[in-house]
Design a protein that fits this description.
about 425 residues, Pdz3 Domain, 3 domains
Length: about 425
Amino acid sequence: MRDQWEIKLFQVKYTTQRLNSLFNQLTRLSPAFWNVWFTFGVIAASALIIVGSFVIVFAATKILASAKHIFVPPSNKSNLMKRDLEGVGEEDQVFLPMIPGVTLPMSHIGYYLLALTICGLFHEAGHAIASYSQGVPIQSSGMFVAYLYPGAFVNIPDQQLQSLNPFKQLRIICAGVWHNLVLYAFSFISLAGGLKLFLLMLGWQSLEGYGGVSVVHIRPNSPLAPHLPSSTIIYQLDDFPLVNNIEDWNTHLFQQDGRNKVNQGFCAAKPLQDYGTSCCNINDAYPFGQSDNASISCFNPFPNTGKQSDRICLPTIPVIASTNPERCYKSSDCSSSSGTEMSCVIPYTPSVTGQVVRIYARFPSWIKTGNANNEKVFVFEGELVDIWESGNKSKPTDTKVLDFTFGFAAHFRVNIKIYFILHIGVGNVKHITSF
C-alpha cells in the first residue's frame, strides 16, 4: 500500500507510506542527536504532566465553584456577557473554548484551521522520527478531516513498541508533546520580538515609535477601500494622535455613547452660495441630513449656541479635510482675508450613525500622492465602529516595498498567536491522555 483514501460521512482520511523513507533518512542523519533530543522530550513531558494535571484540577475547581452562578444568576449582572460563557465570568475561566463567531473572529477561521493542521503535523512528525530513532519503523502516516477539524496520525506497530524498554517507549510517546512544546517556544519567542528581529535582518523597516496603526486589509465593500491601500499608516483620528498605536485606535473608536467629540472648532468662510438648511434636518432615518448635495454637511457654531437657526450647511472637504486646517475656539480667532467673514464651526452630528471622523493617513513610499510627506486626510461619515470593522489593523512594525510581504507578515503573526494558544492546551491535554 502506498496511498489509500477513505471517505465516510463528514470524514475524509488519507493514509500513505510515501513519507516513511523521509522519516528514516532524517533519523539516520544524526542518531545520537535524536536520542538526546527525545530524552529532553521525556524530561520536559514528565514535568508537563505534573503542571497539566494541576491546571486541569484547578480549572475543574473553578468551574465547580462558579456553578452556583448558572443556577442562581446574580441579580445585578446580565445573564450573558460578551465573550463569557453563560453564568461563568472571565475571571472564573481557566480554559476559554475557541468558538467561531464567539471567542474566535470569523475572519480568523482560516488561520485557526491552518494552525490546527500545522500543530497536528508537527506533533505526529515527532512520533514518527522518534519511532525510527528507537528502531521501530512506522507502518504509515496520514491526515484526516473530521467535519471541519483537520488532524494527522502515524501508525506504529504495537508489538514492536511493546518490545522496547520503558524509557525507549517514553521517548516515542512523549515525542509529540515535546514537539508541541518546541513549537510553543518558537511562537513565544516570535511574539516576544523574535519575528520583528528576523524581519529587520531581512531589510524590513520598523516604524515603532512613530505612532499609528498599519492597514493590513480593508473590506472590499468598505468606502475606505479605494483610499487606504495595504501598508498605509493611519497616524491620527481627528485631533487624537495614535501615539499608543492600536490601544489609542480602539479608545477613540469605542466611545461609550458612540459619538465623536470635537474640542476645537474649524475656521470657515461664509459660503458664496446659499446651500439651504436641509442638510441640517438630521435624525436616525437621515443621519447625514436631507440635502441632495452629498458634498455639504451641517455645522454648528463653536461654542455651540444650541439654536437651530445658527446651524449652517457648508462644503465638508474644504472646511475640515485639509492637513492643517485653521482651528479656533471662537470666531474672533479666525484670520480674515479680503474682508471675508469667518466663523468658528464644528460638525453637527446628533445621530450615532452619522458621525464625522477625520482620518490622517501616511502612504507607503511606493505610492505617490503628490502631497507633502505623502500624507492625506480623509473624511469618514458613519458609525465609529464601522471604521474599526472596515478592516484589519496592526501596530506599524513592519513595511516593505511589496504589499504581499506586508500582508504575509500580518497573516503570519496571527497564525503564530493561534499556535501559541493552541499549544498551551494541546500540549497539556494531549500529553495527559497519552499516558
